[in-house]
Amino acid sequence: MSTKQLLRFLHYRLRRRQSTLAVSSSIGRKLLLRNSPCSPPFTATGNFQSTLSCIVSSRSFIGPIGSRTMGSNNVYDNKGEQVLQEDNPCWGSSEECDLEYLLSKVSKDEAILYESTNYVILNKPPDLRMDGPYKATVHKLLTYWYPPPSLEGYSGETFIQEVSKLHQHNHLADNALRPCHQLDYATSGVLCVARSHEAASVASQLFEDRKVQKSYLAVVNGSFHIRDNAESLPILTMEKMQSTLRALEQAYRNSRSKRRQDTFAGFQPPHALFNKFKSMIRNQSTTNHCNNTAESNPSKKKKRKRPSPLTDENWSEIWRPVRDQSSDESLENMNWKQLCKTNKEWKQAFQLAATIHNDLLRDALFSEQPQMAPSLPTLFQVENDRDSVYIFCPLAQVKDDFGMKIPQPVAKAHDLVDLLACKNPDDDELDFKPSLTKCTVLESCSYKGGHVTKVRLWPITGRRHQLRVHMALSGHAILGDVTYESSSRTETANKRKPPRMCLHAQSLSLALLGEPEGWKIMTPDPFVIQGGKLELTTA
Description:
Elements: H1 3-18, E1 20-24, E2 30-34, H2 48-56, H3 59-62, H4 99-105, H5 108-111, E3 112-115, E4 119-124, H6 138-145, H7 156-164, E5 178-179, E6 188-194, H8 197-208, E7 213-221, E8 235-236, H9 238-257, H10 270-285, H11 287-296, H12 312-323, H13 336-342, H14 344-365, E9 379-382, E10 385-392, E11 396-397, E12 404-405, H15 408-413, H16 417-420, E13 436-447, E14 450-459, H17 466-473, H18 490-495, E15 503-509, E16 520-522, E17 528-530, E18 533-535
Parallel strand pairs: 6-15, 8-9
Antiparallel strand pairs: 1-2, 3-4, 4-6, 5-6, 7-14, 7-15, 9-10, 10-13, 11-12, 13-14, 15-16, 17-18
């Protein structure tokens, strides 16, 4: 590719970045729309370094939109060793929270609920991270109890020291332990961990396909009386709720796919355009023959082609990098692999043509605002289940912000703008995912003189912090949830601050590898109510 073509490519990517407009769909997803005509063709004059700097600063050049840089907790000292992060768990303190101290508090016989050659089911303690540069994690605990062959030669304090150095699951090549799902740091309860790659693959697919049933126990602030508010809540049929949720999720997937570089209908890689160009050359030399054949065989039906959303002008722009090539080398007798090896200029020309084609096609496919998907009420009930309330609200994560966010209109309606609405970017810029939770009230009681309610929660969708945000949205934040408790309750909550967040994953049902269909496991209830009072422990 000549310098002129490279500059044109860079300028093309820059002006496309500048000519996109983010608009939100019904669930807050943005769609990229062309809102200005193409600029005049770029010339080779100007400052190349300036243009390149502008392009590199654009996320569309260096990677797919929305990609994240992981490993923000990785901090290293002068010796190149990873620095451990501070922690202050409910079962210890900031000074006493290492693996050895955790082992003195947690018994393997009580913590391991189930064990087979394929899986380990752990009753995860509260305030314990899954992995990472911390003194004690789930990964370190299970690695100590189920050491890989590379650690079998260690014992005693040396063994604990070696395990304490392992911050990630892939730090040892022979450590096959892999969590099949996640639990928040403050959440306790059932955690499924695979002991082989095959077992992890089976379980992960079940979670992805939503063939897993999970239920949680929680204690929430205030007296939560569903029947008292039943008359003001909308009532839907189960079929209506399920079909609407499917429509919302399909709308989310559709709006998401338009940003992907390789997963929308009609995407063309460079070698496909190369073959198409060769076909065009051959067809030009046989046009008359084809016409005569068609005329002599009028009964022969022509294959119907789906109309392309691209115009002739679009195709002219697509083929321009290829037609600009001055090489006289014939392409008719070459395949793509041969071309890549022998002529880099032709290869780069087809790569640029493919980029232009896919950008234009993506815009053409998503150039019109899709029909707004039907939505669900924020709070509603389902027929024949009047003891439960359903909570629906899309959730989005903001970069460098720990808490999840909800759309501004929902936050305003529930007077939670300061707590749950995003303060910096507009809702259009956030990746809102539809989220639905079922909540059933079990029992009302008191804790340190305040009213609390024990509930059972079913996450119908599985989003980060979903149960915690939805309960805050209902007006009854989870007891001890410092992230989502309303500021109006902060002073009261501080006076009766519990030792832990009161959210516990109680049951898990799925068809694990080697287990029968409908296999289910449960943990003991950690939120014991005696004499109308809640008793909490950290164990």
